[in-house]
Amino acid sequence: MEKAFKLTKVKDDKKAQYASYYLKDEASYWWESSKALLERESISWETFLEMFLEKYLPSYMQDQLEMRFMDLRQEDMTVAEYEVKFSELARFVPEYVNTEAKKAKRFQTGLKPRIQSQMVLLKIRTYVVLVQKAMIVEGERDATKRESEGKKRIYEESEQDQGRSKFRGKFGRNAGSRNQRFQKFKPENGN
Q1: Is 61 inside any structural domain?
Q2: Are 111 and 104 in contact (CB under 8 A)?
Q3: How many domains does the chain have?
Q4: DSSP symbol at 40
Q5: What's this model's pTM, rounded to 2 decimal places?
Q6: Do 115 and 144 share a domain, yes or no?
Q7: Is 174 in the same domain as 90?
């Protein structure tokens, strides 16, 4: 809503009226009854916002969202998935991400240790740059892991093939000499 106020240059004394115009259904009914209880003609934006948040985002929910944000770790998510979750929760705790440095530091804290250790060395203080670099590190590690697994698989297949050829060699010779022995005892006339 704040963006809309800036874009349309809504004056402070009209912000609550402007915002309430966009409320729908239950929220609209709630506002009409709340406004009637206040018995004031003009309601400040701060009052409106405080009442709205108390109704739709009460303090206990804000506390829960804050805890979820503080406990957020990348764990089994990709960096991109972690960034989406981080941004989603950061909206509710602006005091923790109100500067680029704070936002970057908090994001870095939740990264997987192997990625975080490389980010610490880079000393990045800009959130967007940090996210991009973390994605690059993750991509490089994944590519290295795939390459390593591919080499391991090729090595294991090679070992298996060598084992099979040794097996065939041993038993193939015996099988051939056995066939020759049986041909010696085979009657020639069919008798």
Answers
A1: no
A2: no
A3: 2
A4: -
A5: 0.62
A6: yes
A7: yes
